[in-house]
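Interim report, section 4.2 (structural modelling).
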Amino acid sequence: MRNIFDFLEQDTRLAATLRVLFSTACVLIAWQLVSTVVTNRLLLVPPADVAIALWSELQQGAMWTNAVATVTAVVTSFIVSVLIGIAIGLALASSRLLSLTGGPVLSALNSVPIIALAPLFVAWLGLGFASKFVLVLLVAVFPVVVTTEAGLRAADKPLIEAARSFNASRWQIFTTVTFPYALPFIVSGIRVAWARALVGIVVAEFFGSFAGFGFAILSASQTFDTARVLGYVFLLGAMGLIGSVLFASLERHLAPWRQE
Amino acid sequence: MTASALLRVDNVNKTFVRNGKPSVEALRAINLSIREGEFVSIVGASGSGKSTLLRIIDGLLDPTDGAVYVDGARVSQPGPDRAMVFQQDSLLPWKTVIENVAYGLTLAKKPWSEASKVAERFIAMTGLAGFETHYPHQLSGGMRQRVNVARALAVNPRILLLDEPFAALDAQTREIMQTELLSIWKESRKTVLLITHQIDEAVFLSDRVIVFSARPGSVRQEVPIELPRPRDLELKRTPEFVSLVDRIWKLIEDEVRLGLKDGSH
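Predicted structure of the assembly:
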């Protein structure tokens, strides 16, 4: 038993994959066991039923339609919010005036639950892509802004001094010290932004859309089709997990010196 | 003040300003001159402004009064005739050893083919051959300081400024690095100004030791070190060496004690 644990704790790709599989299997088994006790299928359906529901969605083509709607909206909006977030973070870090005037407003906005404004955006921008795009943008942009600014300000003073000592220009200091130093910070902000973007897209789709995972979850729950609800939640979870793993490995790749 | 001085510090004062008001007088009336090829050390208690002086010479800080001249030309900013070796952790963690050594050259827009060739040479000179593609976090403290020294040498400065380069190393590694520095100095024929709080290090390496007194930092005394070269670690056990260290220690002992009492060491 101990040998198995030691093996799973190793820092290899195989062990990491096995860890994920192992914990998923444990959850599925527990879920299956609980659903033999809780027999009300409105409250809980066993994992096998969820898989069947997903399979039938796939065959009917509904899953594809929903996936296209959700993924196009969330990915475009996410990419745009990352770009805008980095740009705003750069502006805030490079200008004291902007940081003093814009900073407090941005942190106030950051603490407002923008998600609550979803019905308003739907009223303004209508049902469909535009309202989804804007809502996701607004929830995903802040973590990127905050981490970009913090990362750029965190740059090690001795590194900057060394660059200056070699007569580096301000632009060279930015490209060779400040920005590379900030990159892992920015990526961790992007990771948070991805998780927030997924929440944003679901809420946006709850309120105003004719397609998408959020729309499908809402319509399934209105017909008490718990298996379909959980099936789509599972897909969203998978999207979140893929993004998180991807950005975490990018972060490690960019800053290997932080681990050791 | 000899005419042949390569580096001349002329009546430099430095007072730091905080909130628009002068707060700390770091240096008062510093006059120094260093000849080409000379190895000079500055020792002093902590807070004696020696690091500040080094930064003024490098051009990272402006003096409040007075001026620094290199070969007759007034220093107003960092330049290729001077290079600084910092205490530690001033290597770029995302760059390999060779990229770090070539850093000054790439900042000066030298093509990589040329920069890497120069870097290779100083990597070999500092005993780093075989570690070109390692990252700083994969190296020991002593190895990282070699990279630091190689990086400074690679830009081919006339004056090498060393800011307590071995302070963060353990005692054994420090001794080895001192002898290596001597052989690099001999091979590269640079003019060296070293800041240290290790008196034995200063005596072992230098032609001349300048003793600083603290608050404000000023030159207390210059001690010529007329020990034969080449020097090896055996020298540290000779009575001449020990008496020189003792003499310098007596010059700064009171201030070190005072600093301890202040709690600001």
